[in-house]
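Review session, final week

We close the course with one last complete record, chosen because it touches almost every idea we covered. It is TPM domain-containing protein, a protein from Azotobacter beijerinckii with 240 residues. Go through it on your own first, then we will talk.
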Amino acid sequence: MSAAHRLFQGLLLGACALLVQAQEVSFPTLSGRVVDHADLLDTSTEARLTQMLAAHEQATGDQLVVVTVPDLQGRSIEEFGVELGRRWGIGQKGKDNGALLIVARDERQVRIEVGYGLEERLTDAQSSLIIHNIIAPAFKQGDFARGVTEGAAAMIRVLGGEPLPGEQGSGAADRDAGGPSPGALLLLLMVILLLIRSGHGRGAFIAGALLGGLRRGGGGGGGFSGRGGGFGGGGASGGW
């Protein structure tokens, strides 16, 4: 992702934040590496996931968290994901090596939210492949435990240098080539600022949808806490 894209995306996210100040979202508490707020996982699955994610963090320093929520409270899953990542501070400060696997039960949506420091390995394209080829098929069969477990395992494999087949080209260059131009980003920023001034009640939803469209353009452990990692909207979303 180029510096210009980061700048404009930061401005867009800031505008989104202004739009939703009066509509505060209630985020779940970061209680462990698995936060099953929607009660989709059984105890044994949570334990296996926690062990797997803890082992990966111990070996690499990368911090991965699985979270399920009942609903998105009117937000887009892209907006919800980047704000949750920032609130929790997943990943190490300065390394930004955190990632979230988010499942929204009522909207039937999934997102992999990737911190800045992991975007070169866990690319948008790889995140999309994990969602559409691994997680969504299991979810369509009602098997949330398998979808989440295999999805998280695939994230770890990709971060370890074993990308899934199907991605063309490499990493950041692909995202920049397929992404919006700075002019388009500036135009969207102006639209969002106009929404702020006009006070439309659905401004937050529209802003989230616009920003999500840009990103998609191409294609319980005790004592656990986030460590100040940064997020800027990298990753992918999908449904089932």
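Two points worth writing down before the exam:
Residues 31-174 form a domain with the Diaminopimelate Epimerase; Chain A, domain 1 fold (CATH 3.10.310.50).
The chain has a mean pLDDT of 80.
Good luck, everyone.
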